[in-house]
Design a protein that fits this description.
Blueprint (H helix, E strand, L loop, with lengths): L5 H8 L1 H12 L3 H9 L7 H7 L6 H6 L3 H5 L14 E3 L4 E7 L5 E4 L2 E4 H5 L2 H4 L6 E6 L7 E3 L4 E3 L3 E3 L8 H6 L2 H4 L2 E8 L3 E8 L6 E4 L4 E3 L4 E6 L4 E6 L4 E3 L1 H9 L3 E3 L4 E5 L10 H6 L2
Antiparallel strand pairs: 1-17, 2-5, 2-16, 3-4, 5-14, 6-13, 7-9, 7-12, 8-9, 9-10, 10-14, 11-13, 15-17
């Protein structure tokens, strides 16, 4: 599993850090941070950020970034996307964890329990996902912060929910139910191979931003859906019961670690015909309790 940054450990693991974090949120000091990170003054942060997170950029690209925001929201050519019909792909570069949705439309992560009716603010829709699967993709600083569609289909309305901007690193998730507290945007994807899928983008760490490109429109597998700006973030995919099955090797890795590194476009599972039985996912659930 990836390591928690020293800054996040301080903010969530110490009394002083939690006090400072609360002060920043109450006084809305995030607005100042956003203005700075979008300004030319923030360019002085780029070299250190690139080196610290081992980000692969050319000198030409590096010189083209006018601010930290330009570096963070950079684009790249994506030519490693598995386009086979029925193959479930990762929508982004991230750390993946997997949870079952129980009979009360909830999923549990460590010490936090999430009711889908609170997560989506739509109790009726939440009922459709009883017994289904919740896939959480947590993006880190070194990851590419654009995300793509997992299949062909039609996207409905974007539902934006205002909220705080806690970190999504494990130590924060242990302290707060961040996925129902944080700013987020969700939509319903009517897909060709995986049924009705909910995709939710979650902002993080004070200055997170969510920029989605489409609404009430058709999409193609591998097409860019949107991007995050300025801070590490998370994508949650909710699948109805029996609609997906993870690859055996991924199930094995998840039985050994609560998170597994995946790449944008990587084949991680299949459409529901080969969906595993409840007992086949016991090791995954045990690893995430």
């Amino acid at each position: 599993m990836s390591n928690t940054s020293k800054a996040v450990s301080f903010m969530y693991g110490t009394f002083i850090g939690r006090f400072l974090l609360k002060t920043v949120m109450v006084l809305h000091l995030d607005c100042i941070a956003v203005c700075f990170l979008r300004s030319r003054l923030s360019k002085i942060m780029n070299n250190g950020y690139i080196k610290r997170n081992n980000i692969s950029v050319t000198e030409e690209e590096k010189n083209s970034f006018r601010s930290f925001r330009d570096l963070f929201a950079r684009t790249r050519v994506n030519d490693n996307i598995d386009m086979a019909p029925g193959h479930l792909i990762s929508p982004c570069d991230s750390w993946l964890s997997v949870f079952k949705i129980d009979g009360e439309s909830r999923f549990s992560i460590k010490n936090s329990h999430y009711a889908l009716k609170d997560f989506l603010q739509d109790g009726e829709l939440a009922k459709n996902y009883v017994g289904g699967d919740c896939l959480i993709f947590r993006l880190c600083a070194s990851d590419y912060h654009h995300y793509h569609f997992i299949d062909n289909g039609y996207q409905g309305e974007n539902h934006f929910i205002k909220g705080a901007l806690h970190s999504v690193q494990p130590i924060a998730c242990e302290k707060y139910p961040v996925y129902v507290k944080n700013r987020r945007s969700w939509c319903l994807l009517d897909t060709e191979n995986f049924g009705s899928v909910i995709q939710c983008e979650i902002g993080a760490l004070i200055v997170g931003g969510i920029a989605n490109d489409k609404e009430n429109a058709h999409f193609l597998k591998g097409e860019e859906k949107g991007h995050f700006e300025l801070a590490g973030s998370t994508i949650v995919l909710l699948f109805e019961k029996g609609k997906i099955s993870l690859k055996d090797e991924l199930i094995q890795k998840l039985s050994e670690n609560s998170e597994v590194k995946v790449a944008l476009g990587e084949w991680i599972g299949n459409a529901g015909a080969n969906c595993p039985k409840e007992e086949d996912t016991a090791d995954i659930k045990a690893a995430n309790i």
